[in-house]
Amino acid sequence: GGPATVLRHKGDADQATVVIAWPTSGGRTNIRESRQLEILAQLFNNRLFEQLREQAGASYAPQVRNDWPLDFDNGGNIATIAQVQPENVEKFMSLAQQIADDLVAKPVTDDELNRITEPLKQLISRASTGNAFWLSMLEGVSADRKRVGQVRSLLGDYTVTTPAEMQALAARYLGRDKAWRLVVLPENAPVPQAALDPAQGPEGGAAEGVVAAAE
Q1: Residue 164, number of CB atoms within 10 A of its CB
Q2: Are 122 and 155 in contact (CB under 8 A)?
Q3: Alpha-carbon Rg for the chain in angstroms
């Protein structure tokens, strides 16, 4: 939560970058959740791409990424990032937040979920026919036998879920008060209203927390 961190660049005046990140967790103990978060991130990504294309003319390619470090118990995040024109920073931030809110507020449809899980199922099924896949997956098994079970559950963890499970994950991690925001703007571009703390609403004043210009 809180106002966005705002950096300034000295590059092209028609380029800006926006990052919104929600902290998650890490480690192997709850590896199923890390894999389920990949489905949630792809749901988020599909909605963001489609809606941004409809509303802003779609030359942008936003990304929503799930990062869950397996070797640490925390430090993961779901993050959305996009390079946009400065005048579209507020639109992107507002749209990304609206999608996060919607994922928290109500379950996705079965059809929307299937459009994510079916390609993942095909991808894993194809990859698992090669020796390199299994060598990678079984790395470290001799030191930690629990990894065998984590390999066996791989396909199900990435492809078997429900709209209710996705909503529960969104509610756990995508709350407005948990989001960290970064905006990188040209030197003279105004700070958009959406860079404010969402709790203050769009009518607030100039954003706080502006840091020194980036070289």
Answers
A1: 10
A2: no
A3: 19
The residues facing 183 across adjacent strands are 6, 18
3-state DSSP assignment of residue 192: coil
Sorted by sequence, the CB contacts under 8 Å of residue 7 that are 6+ apart come out as: 182, 183, 184, 185, 211, 213, 214
pLDDT tens-digit profile of 78-89? 999 999 889 888
pLDDT digits (tens, 9 = 90+) for 189-210: 888 876 755 554 433 333 333 3
Three-state SS across 20-35?
Answer: EEEECCCCCCCHHHHH
Amino acid at 8: R
Q: Where are the beta strands (DSSP E) in the chain?
A: 5-9, 16-23, 63-67, 77-84, 180-186
Q: What is the mean pLDDT of residues 39-51?
A: 94
Rounded Cα–Cα distance for residues 186 and 164 (Å): 42
Q: How far is the C-alpha of 92 from the C-alpha of 51, rounded, in Å?
A: 10
Report d(CA 104, CA 175) in Å as an integer.
8
Question: If you search the block for the tokens 């492809």, which residue do you land on?
Answer: 159
Number of H helices and E strands in the chain, helices first, is 7, 5
Q: How far apart are the first and last CA of the chain?
A: 26
- Nearby residues of 25 by Cβ (< 8 Å), 6 or more positions away: 33, 34, 68, 73, 74, 76
Q: pTM of the full predicted structure?
A: 0.82
> How many CA atoms, within 13 angstroms, populate the side-chain half-sphere of residue 91?
19
